[in-house]
Amino acid sequence: MDALDFRFGHGRRRQCNPRPALAWLGFATAFAVAAAAAGQELPQAQPEAVGMSKEGLNAVAAEMDRLVADGEIVGMNAMITRQGRIVFEHATGILDMETGAPMRLDSLIRIYSMTKPITSAGALMLVDDG
Q1: For this structure, is 120 an active site residue?
Q2: Suppose 85 and one of 26, 35, 45, 106 were both cysteines; which one would form an S-S bond, judging by CB atoms 3.0 to 4.6 Å apart?
Q3: Vertex 119, ends 114 and 125: CA angle to 5°?
Q4: What's the pLDDT at 5?
Q5: So where are the chain's domains?
């Protein structure tokens, strides 16, 4: 496939090379497969063992709790990993407003269009790793 022909408004035409799009599609597929394979349990680590501050992570948890207490967010959960090990997990607030179910570490949350920046961040991490 050498080029695709696109028609725009007012009869304008433009040719487009599909190779970059196909390369990105292949990259996205490989990334999705790698993410699925990485779905295995990660080991835990003490923050200091991987160069992080326990006090700093406690401040993250306190801020999450404050956001829920102040009514800015109904509920959230977070996990921070470093060097392939979990150093922080925290859940706070409510998962379901109707039932009052609490947010848990394993709660599934609909993130809608947030997959784009998450995928972009993952792609940039892979590029950074070489």
Answers
A1: no
A2: 45
A3: 135
A4: 46
A5: 1-40, 42-129
